[in-house]
Each structure stands twice: as structure tokens, then as C-alpha cells.
Amino acid sequence: MSAEKEWKGKTSGTKWMHRSLIWMMHNLPYRGVYLFVCVFVIPFCMLFSHKGYIAIYHFFVMRRNENMALAFWHTYKNHCMFAGIILDRFYTYSGGKLNIEVEDWDLYHNLVDSKDGFVILSAHIGNYEVAGYTLEAESKRFNALVYSGEAETVMDNRRKMFETKNRHMIIIKKDMSHLFEMSNALANGEILSLPADRIFGSSRHYNIDLLGCKAKFPVGPFAVAAQREVAVLAINVMKTGYKKYRIHIKQLQQTEGNIKQRAENLAYQYANNLENVVNEYPTQWFNYFEFWN
Question: CA 217, CA 198: separation in Å to the nearest integer?
């Protein structure tokens, strides 16, 4: 089954569960909630809900060349890390503040201060959502392309977080009208944030080596940047400790050639940067399906 069919893109749980989690983040000891999840919830899920765990286990065995015992331990650690990131997300929804470090802050702000728009590319590693609530962009609107089928509570809280910070969500729509919003954002000199490791709608993709095997990367994000000839940043937000994150910013280089050639070159640069980040933070790889061909 293909990756785009495997992945549903929706935060698990009901509206009541999400609201309860926000309440817990506001009223209960954070460390206690996290410990309970790691000790009781994750082992239970590993026993009775296998699909995502098997995909991550394969990642550690096949892409990281780990033995069975180490791969199993890292699979568990990966889900504990993911639990911490989900709790951090709801912690911010409840009004909590995270400790954020930003590498190459000047690189980001120089682009913000310029008259031209630019593209930010992200992946499902670490906690990229934190970037949308952290990176200041008072002089440019920050437009984030988001999946329309996300849980209602998550979408409502994202809107609340975005409303006060010159942010805007571009919802992926079946009629593809989001493509016009994306184009207009760049034409108006704004920031456009796109996921670059998932195929939405179109089957067009690049087959690029990632950790020793071919993986599919969507053509769309790279084609948009190449067509507009705008600056491109790869941004990854990685958890480094208790309520702590580091934002890694890497600028990709626009090269010579036609749009197709430049887009493909951007895709290869992006995959190379992603591989470096995955190697540094392997337990924060959160693609819970068989990502590789």
C-alpha cells in the first residue's frame, strides 16, 4: 500500500479526549502525565496496535542497521518522544511556554526583512508546529499549508494560536483551490510553509536516496519554489529536553536551469539535509508507515 494511503494525517482521539488533555496540561504535573503515558499507555498500544510500531521498527532495523533488541528499544523510545511532543503541543494550547533555541536566526530574519516572499519546507520529524508559533514574522504573513482532515480540537487551537501572530492556515482542498492561495502568498511577498515529505493529491514525486534506499518526495513544494525563484529554507524543530527545542534552519540554493531542473535540485538538497537531521535525531522520525519503496 502506498504511503499516501497509509497515512491519515489526523491526530488520534476524540474532541473530549483532546479537551481533557488540554485541561490536564494546565492543571496536573506535566512530568506525571508524561510518565503515566510512557509506562502504561505506550506499552499497551505496542501490544494491541501494531501498524505504526512495525513501520518504525523496520526503520531502525533496515535504515539504521540495528539489531532486534536495540530496534525494539528505540521503537519504544520513539513513541515516548512522540508522546512528549504531543503533550508539548497541548501544553502550548493551554497557554504554556516552551524553551526554544534558534540556529541561524539572522538567516531567517534577513529573509523576513526583504521584500520577497520565501518558502519554508518541513518534514514529519521533531515538532515543526512549534515553528509556526515561535518564528516572528510581523512584516510578513506566515502561511502554513495544513491537512483539512485534522482533528477538530487541534484545528480550533491552531486557529487561536495563529490569529494573534499574523499567521494564516491554507487548508488543502479537494478542488485544489489551495494552489491559488499558495501562489498569491508568494506573489504578495509572504512566507509559505509546506510539508515536503508527504504526497497530497498528486502522484508526481521524485525517487531520491534517503538512508540508503529510494524514498518518494512530492514534486509540488519544490516546483512552487523553483517557479517563483524564491528563497527556500528547510526548517526542523527538534526536541532537546524537558519543554526544550532547537530550531535548525538551512537555506537551500536555487540553481541554474529550467524549472524542472531547479525543482529537482532543490528536492535532492532537501533530502540530503533531512538525512543529516534524521541521523542526528533518529528517535524523532515520526512517519508511521512504510516510508521507503
Answer: 7
With left for phi above 0 and alpha for psi between -120 and 50, is residue 211 left, alpha or beta? left
> Average pLDDT for residues 75-98, to the nearest whole number?
88
Q: Mind listing the pLDDT tens digit for each residue in 136-162? A: 677 899 998 887 655 455 556 566 655
CA 11 to CA 22: how far, in whole Å? Answer: 14
Pairwise CA distance, residues 269 & 250, whole Å: 10
253 phi, psi to nearest 5 deg: -100, 130
Task: State phi, psi for 199 to the nearest 5 degrees.
Answer: -95, 115
Give per-residue pLDDT as tens, 48-63: 776 778 999 999 999 9
Q: Please report where in the chains the cell 517557479 appears, as a residue.
A: 227
Distances (CA, A) of 242 to 103, 193, 199, 249: 19, 26, 32, 21
Q: Which residues contact 52 (CB under 8 A, 6 or more apart)?
A: 288, 289
**CB-based contacts of 19, cutoff 8 Å, min separation 6:** 153
